[in-house]
């Protein structure tokens, strides 16, 4: 089908067509050259038979009836503020995470989600394969949350969190939980919770299950990634090594 996509490549602007095809995994460069000479490749609807043709990420390349994904893949670590929706648009006009990426040409989207009133680390990318891989339950990416909760959990409460609690008829996976600080006067506590699941409102529901509702929540780590050096609303591009580590999970 003409709209089926194949491959992906982090191409720079104006690269030779056969190189783009090879980088996307279509075929070797020599085999790609033969496909071009055989009239099996079109750019923006025009069949190309010249090997010197150059294309950019804005061009639509179709190889044997399948569209080549030529958009450069980008990866960002974003410190999501509270009061921002984890979405690319909102029909009610509320602020969304992509509002912070106005100067980014690529059509990026969040990996997973953070609640409207939750702040912290969120990955943004246009790499659908990596996003799906990271969100798949089998990959078990550890995520660290710091929660301000009502009341002060006791050792027995932490034991329940570590062993798993029942949420809507299903037990959560074992977690790491510890007390960071306690305010005896205000009856509030800061608690660290590390989980690898991503069920809807999971952290809040886990604390509800032990009788200590969340008042404020922040995600501080995602796997090996942290918020170091960023303030709320900031983002940075992931390094090449960081992307490779994520892909190797």
From TrEMBL:
The keyword RNA-binding applies. Gene3D superfamilies: Alpha-L RNA-binding motif, Pseudouridine synthase I, catalytic domain, N-terminal subdomain, RNA-binding S4 domain. Transmembrane segments: none annotated. Signal peptide: none annotated. Keywords: Isomerase, RNA-binding. GO terms for molecular function: RNA binding; rRNA pseudouridine synthase activity. Pfam families: PseudoU_synth_2, S4. One of its GO terms (cellular component) is cytosol. Residues 15-76 form the RNA-binding S4 domain. GO terms for biological process: enzyme-directed rRNA pseudouridine synthesis. Its EC number is 5.4.99.-. Belongs to the pseudouridine synthase RsuA family. This is Pseudouridine synthase. It comes from Liquorilactobacillus mali KCTC 3596 = DSM 20444. The lineage of its organism: Bacteria, Bacillati, Bacillota, Bacilli, Lactobacillales.
């Amino acid at each position: 089908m003409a709209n089926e996509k194949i491959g992906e490549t982090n191409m720079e602007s104006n690269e030779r067509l056969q190189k783009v095809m090879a980088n996307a995994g279509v075929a070797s460069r020599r085999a790609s050259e033969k496909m071009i000479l055989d009239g099996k490749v079109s750019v923006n609807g025009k069949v190309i038979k010249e090997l010197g043709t150059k294309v950019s990420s804005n061009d639509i390349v179709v190889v044997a009836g399948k569209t080549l994904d030529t958009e450069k893949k980008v990866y960002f670590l974003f410190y999501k503020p509270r009061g921002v929706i984890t979405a690319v648009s909102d029909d009610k006009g509320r602020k969304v995470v992509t509002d912070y990426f106005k100067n980014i040409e690529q059509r990026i989207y969040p990996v997973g989600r953070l609640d409207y009133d939750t702040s912290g680390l969120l990955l943004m990318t246009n790499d659908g394969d990596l996003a799906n891989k990271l969100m798949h339950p089998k990959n078990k990416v550890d995520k660290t949350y710091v929660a301000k909760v009502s009341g002060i959990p006791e050792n027995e409460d932490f034991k329940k969190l570590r062993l798993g609690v029942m949420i809507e008829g299903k037990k959560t996976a074992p977690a790491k939980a510890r007390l960071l600080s306690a305010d005896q006067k205000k009856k509030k506590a800061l608690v660290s919770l590390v989980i690898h699941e991503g069920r809807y409102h999971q952290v809040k529901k886990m604390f509800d299950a032990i009788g200590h509702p969340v008042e404020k929540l922040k995600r501080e780590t995602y796997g090996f990634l942290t918020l170091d050096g960023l303030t709320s609303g900031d983002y940075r591009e992931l390094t090449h090594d960081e992307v490779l580590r994520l892909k190797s999970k």
